[in-house]
Amino acid sequence: MGEEIRVDFNTGSDGGSGAGGSSGGTGGPPPRVSGGATGGDFDYRQLVPSFVQTVREVIFNPVGFFRGVRREGDFLNPLLFAIICAVISGLLGGILGFLISLATGNGFGSSIGGLFGTLIITPIATAIGLFIGAAIYHLLVLLIIRPSHQGYEATFRVVAYASAIQLLAWLAAIPILGILVLLAVVVYNVVLSVVGIREMHSTTTGRAAAVVLIPAVIFGLLALIIGVAIVAILAAAFSQAQ
Asked: What would the mean pLDDT of 123-139 be, rounded to a whole number?
């Protein structure tokens, strides 16, 4: 028989004690792993099998993954995992763009340049984005989940491992279908982040959702305001030119 794949989001009771589940019931998180245990972490020393296993667990069994992964002791493995995901997605997107440019005869040189740029810029941008994104989330963890939390590194691991869904982001380059793919990737990244914050910090779904959604709402409003301002400036400049 083939191996059964489960997409598991159930954590048992979400109320009462203020944790992800009752500590005495079957839905409660197991004892937190730290220090020398590897838990469910990606391990760069077993690069390919560990990467495939980690991606599968994060996407199809996020609750079990984030419950089992250790909370501290190693920034390197989750950082490398996120960088690999971003580079693979960038390369696949660049290759797809290159093939589209071959078919249409447009932007051949820019597509080649984009492939090389992905290998250089993406790892640096991903690393910077991970540390900043985790810092923003953890500030809200300190404000909302206090005083019971597992520290900044636990939040960093959530952000890093949730980036597994980026492996599908390259499909956004497909005309028309790409918008739906991008929307699905963004939504599922939010789901993974909420599950990760909840399990890693032993909190409720509501508090974890607040940690993840508050920055999304703030940045969304800022983007909307900036977009409206740019449109207004362009409209004013166009009217003066008439």
From this structure: 93
Its pTM stands at 0.74
Whole-angstrom distance, CA of residue 221 vs CA of residue 215: 10
Cα gap 133→123, rounded to integer Å:
15
Percent helix, strand, coil in the chain (nearest 5)? Answer: 70, 0, 30
Q: In the predicted model, is pLDDT for residue 114 greater than 80?
A: no
Per-residue pLDDT averaged across 5-34, rounded?
Answer: 42
Task: Return the closest-CA partner of residue 51 out of 8, 3, 92, 88.
Answer: 88
**8 Å CB contact between 194 and 228:** no
Contacts of 198 (CB under 8 A, 6+ apart): 11, 20, 66, 204, 205, 207, 208
- C-alpha 173/C-alpha 87 separation (Å) is 15
Amino acid at 76: L
Q: Give, rounded to a whole angstrom, the gap between the first and last alpha carbons of the chain.
A: 72
Per the rule left: phi > 0, alpha: psi between -120 and 50, beta: everything else, 16 is left
Range among 96-105, 147-156, 165-174 with highest mean pLDDT value: 147-156
- Say which amino acid occupies 186: V
